[in-house]
């Protein structure tokens, strides 16, 4: 069980950090065939992949629309975005604890979930990541609150650009010209989208700022995740538990200072079962997106996951325009296509570079180079 858990953790680390480590790729390939065993028939594999990708699309898109309802619905009028995010974190903590208890009661291998208990030392080790994590989920929700679902993908599209920038500033890693050109296309689409939102009178600068901050925090979250994983035995689920329980504690003073407890006290739907049902469902979907992301990476590959995410963003935009009965200009659609096309091109370029690294022969340790060293 530990071996399977470590493989999944390595795959998720690769997805979060954008790693092109051939060793991690090999672990992914081993995980597909169960450690070197015979693979199932093509039809079974194809149906399994289609099911996992469809599940990822459904949960991800539904979660965005559900959060938009909770954060910005005129009929709900609930002005407490921090409490929404706090409650989603609380639901995730409870789900992790329940699954841990179920796994401990079931026979070995029936429920694959690590044992979870509160450890203050580990919690302190995870705290720097938790601060970034709070920024990521809060700014994501605030961006969604102030911008339309159709523009949400463009509003927080600079994650790839920040990945490149932070890789250079913190890790001194350079990026190829083609990858930089793809980033340029993304930036161009982002600015064109802002221009078109302004032309249509739907531009929210608060939403744009929150989207940029969310993109930055997503990139920082990937870096800190890689640093913190050893503190939780490289278990993504343990990290999820500590991250969310730290977030729940840190959100309390933030909600106090922002006056959201006052807002919550006078909220007219506080006793509505429908409201709490929607809130709980959003928390369940927030937990589920982490699980289906891991599944999609496991049954496809990290690069395929990125391509699927780009295609999902396109479908989400089209659905949002249709659902809210909006009319968009040609240049508005062009900005979306530039962002999606630039993201796809970046993924494609990084995939080719990764393949090239894997195909390069690894010199033996006892071999000398041409200079005789």
TrEMBL record:
Ranges where the Sugar phosphate transporter domain occurs: 48-346
Coiled coil: none
Annotated keywords: Membrane, Transmembrane, Transmembrane helix
Membrane topology type: Multi-pass membrane protein
Family matches, as PANTHER family: SOLUTE CARRIER FAMILY 35
Protein task: Putative transporter.
Record protein name field: Sugar phosphate transporter domain-containing protein
């Amino acid at each position: 069980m530990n071996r399977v858990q470590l493989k999944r953790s390595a795959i998720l680390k690769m997805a979060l950090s954008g790693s092109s480590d051939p060793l991690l790729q090999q672990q992914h390939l081993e995980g597909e065939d169960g450690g070197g065993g015979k693979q199932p028939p093509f039809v079974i594999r194809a149906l399994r992949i289609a099911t996992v990708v469809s599940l990822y699309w459904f949960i991800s898109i539904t979660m965005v629309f559900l959060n938009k309802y909770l954060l910005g619905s005129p009929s709900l009028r609930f002005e407490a975005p921090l409490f929404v995010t706090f409650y989603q974190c609380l639901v995730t903590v409870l789900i992790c604890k329940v699954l841990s208890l179920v796994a401990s009661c079931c026979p070995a291998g029936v429920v694959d979930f690590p044992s979870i208990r509160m450890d203050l030392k580990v919690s302190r080790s995870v705290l720097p990541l938790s601060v970034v994590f709070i920024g990521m989920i809060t700014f994501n929700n605030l961006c969604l609150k102030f911008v339309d679902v159709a523009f949400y993908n463009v509003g927080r599209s600079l994650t790839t650009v920040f990945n490149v920038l932070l890789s250079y500033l913190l890790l001194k890693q350079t990026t190829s010209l083609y990858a930089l050109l793809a980033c340029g296309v993304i930036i161009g689409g982002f600015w064109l989208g802002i221009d078109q939102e302004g032309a249509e009178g739907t531009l929210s600068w608060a939403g744009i700022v929150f989207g940029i901050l969310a993109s930055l925090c997503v990139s920082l979250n990937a870096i800190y995740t890689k640093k913190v994983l050893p503190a939780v035995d490289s278990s993504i689920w343990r990290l999820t538990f500590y991250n969310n329980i730290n977030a729940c504690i840190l959100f309390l003073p933030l909600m106090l200072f922002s006056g959201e407890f006052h807002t919550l006290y006078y909220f007219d739907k506080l006793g509505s079962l429908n409201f709490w049902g929607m809130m709980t469902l959003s928390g369940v979907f927030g937990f589920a997106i982490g699980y289906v992301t891991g599944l999609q990476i496991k049954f496809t590959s990290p690069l395929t996951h990125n391509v699927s995410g780009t295609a999902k963003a396109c479908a989400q935009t089209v659905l949002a325009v249709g659902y809210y009965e909006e009319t968009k200009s040609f240049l508005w659609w062009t900005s979306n296509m530039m962002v999606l096309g630039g993201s796809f091109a970046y993924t494609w370029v990084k995939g080719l570079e990764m393949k090239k690294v894997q195909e390069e022969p690894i010199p033996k340790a006892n071999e000398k180079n041409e200079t005789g060293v």
